[in-house]
Amino acid sequence: MTTHSWRDWSCGVRLVLGRAVGEQVAADAVAVVRELMAEVEQAVSRFRADSEVERINDAAPRMLPVGPLTLVLVSEALEAARRTDGAVDPTVGRHLAALGYDGDIAEVRTRVASTPRPALAPDWRRVAVDHELGRVGVTRGLRLDLGATAKAWAADEGARRVAARHRIPTLLGIGGDVAVAGSPTEPWLVRVSESEGGPGPVLGLTHGGLATSSTTARRWSTPGGEAHHLIDPATGRPSHGCYRTATVWAPSALLANTYSTAALVWGAAAPERLSLERVDARLVDQRGVVREVGAWPRAERTA
Amino acid sequence: MSRNPRSTLLRRARLATLGIVATAVAGTAALTAVATASDGPTADSDDDGTSQVPGWVDRGDSGSGSGVVPPPSIDSPQQPQGESHAS
Fold first, then answer.
1. pLDDT in tens, B51-72
2. Vertex A95, ends A89 and A90: CA angle to 5°?
3. What is the DSSP code string of chain A?
């Protein structure tokens, strides 16, 4: 087992190779993930003025030609919106910025937002994708934010690339989104917690991905009170459902993140909606009471 | 001895018509056989006679297909390799 950890995108990255490997293979695996993350950042980071997504946002409502990676990531974000009936909406960028979340979270916490509330409600149907010509556009007044899906997509893709390149079972965690690829001889052990390094139960992960969303993370102060980064598209404001944290298993980290984010927006309807989607989940309500959904293992070990 | 051109033409027309009819009958029979032998595009028939919509994986109550399982050993001292948390 070979493990490498580092920080990027204001969060922890953890790459675990399923068997001991030489320095050269380990270094190459890390380089594969770093390179992928750099490409994703260049394509869709909301915090880089030169990213393709920011160029699209600034050019709205014009459609701009974009690279294939941006086209994929925007398409995946729209698919997440479609799957969740819009609960996970990629057009919340202006609403997040209005709340003050327009940069690294450490910086955001040091200042108070003064941007006026957007006139338009988030609406993923107002994103246009031209697959033939490779162009993307968003209506004027909305801004794209792919934060809910791009990180999880990168975890899936990074794990797949490393596993395929070195033919070795691989676990990749990016900011708490965990993806595994390859066929390990025994399940990966993964701890589930509400915050990085926090306490929580341990379970086995055989395939697919795990993602956790929580309204307890990425909080900051605004003139209207405390805010967090999970926007309810119906209101354009931080969600206030009955669950504060959702961890979801799905066939990919992207799907897991899609449904863990949606669960907090769905609120009381989350258990039934998640069951309908046939994913397994662990929900924590505002009082800290845990509810398991689907085949989530009950006999967990607490680390 | 030369044949009447009109009767020759009629004979060829009859043969051509017979060929077309024979091809149509054989083709229809073959298509019917293939359709009968296949599972069909709209439903699968199980041994117990129930039908299932293609693409629908019935996990029932067992949760089979899930990627989350109890850890191999509850008492194992092994540390977790990954962590799923909010960020």
1. 443 333 344 444 457 999 998 7
2. 20
3. -EEEEEEETTEEEEEEESS---HHHHHHHHHHHHHHHHHHHHHH-TT-TTSHHHHHHHHTTS-EE--HHHHHHHHHHHHHHHHTTTSS-TTBHHHHHHTT-SS-HHHHTTS---PPPPSSPP-GGGEEEETTTTEEEE-TT-B---HHHHHHHHHHHHHHHHHHHHT--EEEEETTEEEEES--SSPEEEEE-SSTT---EEEEE-SSEEEEEETTSSEEEETTEEEES-EETTTTEE---SEEEEEEEESSHHHHHHHHHHHHHHGGGHHHHHHHTT-EEEEEETTS-EEEETT--S-PEE-
Does A194 touch chain B if contact means CB atoms closer than 8 Å?
yes
The conformational region for residue A214 under phi > 0 = left, psi -120 to 50 = alpha, else beta, is beta
Nearest to A215 by CA among B22, B83, B46, B86: B86
Residue A89 has pLDDT above 90, yes or no: yes
* Per-residue pLDDT tens digits for A162-198: 999 999 999 999 999 999 999 999 999 999 999 888 8
- State how far the Cα of A203 lies from the Cα of A16, in Å rounded to an integer: 16
Give the pLDDT score at A35: 98
What is the token pair recorded at B77?
A: 């001292």
The answer, yes or no, to whether residue A40 has pLDDT greater than 70, is yes
Name the residue among B45, B23, B48 with its Cα closest to residue B36: B45
Query: In the structure encoding, which two tokens stand for residue B46, read together?
Result: 């199980």
Q: Which two tokens stand for residue A184?
A: 């390990």
pLDDT band at B36 (very low <50, low <70, confident <90, very high): low
Q: Is A101 on the interface with B (CB under 8 A)?
A: no
Question: What confidence tens digit (pLDDT) does each residue in A129-146 have?
Answer: 999 999 999 999 999 999
Instruction: Write the ipTM.
Output: 0.85
pTM summary value? 0.81
Q: For residue B70, is the peptide bond before it cis, meaning its omega torsion is within 30 degrees of 0?
A: no
Q: Is B55 on the interface with A (CB under 8 A)?
A: no
Whether the CB-CB separation of A260 and A281 falls below 8 Å is answered with yes
Q: How many CB atoms lie within 10 A of CB A289?
A: 10
Those of residues 127-186 in A touching chain B at CB distance below 8 A are 171, 173, 175-178, 180, 186
